Amino acid sequence: MSNILMIIPPERFRDEELFVTKEELEKFEHKITIASTKKGVCTGSRGGFAKSEYDINELSTDKFEVVIFVGGGGSKLLFKNIRANQIANEMNSKGKVVAAICLAPVILANAGVLKHKKATVAGTEAKTIEEKGAEYTGPGVTVDGNIVTANAPKQSRLFGQAIGKLLINRL
After folding, report:
1. Where are the domains of the chain?
2. What CATH class is the domain 3-170?
């Protein structure tokens, strides 16, 4: 069982990217912690709600083996967030699993985590991650070492499964 940190935007996170991914990871009995740029209730773009247990500015990455950045239109609020970039870098430098779905891989690209890595992202941001040194792989789920990316909400289940399998292989 791993401790997984899921970071969501405070508003307009993509519901299935949080809930379906989380559901898949809970099948592996992982412990999930949700954080955002604020504590409390965050709203999804499809009407869902999630409770953020931590403000990302207040948390340490030490107790987590995985960080997942959830996409949706609100994830643009995290693209250049200094703490989000630090978290991605801290986790990556420790060889921990760093994952992002939909628009959120831009956060990883801005943090420098995707440089020389194969990755995917929502098609509208393919050039963005390529400009930051990633090799864009197209639609689907991409795993490159400790980095897992997915391009769209419909990939949420496979995204969660890919992270779960990666964790099994690390035990």
Report:
1. 3-170
2. alpha beta
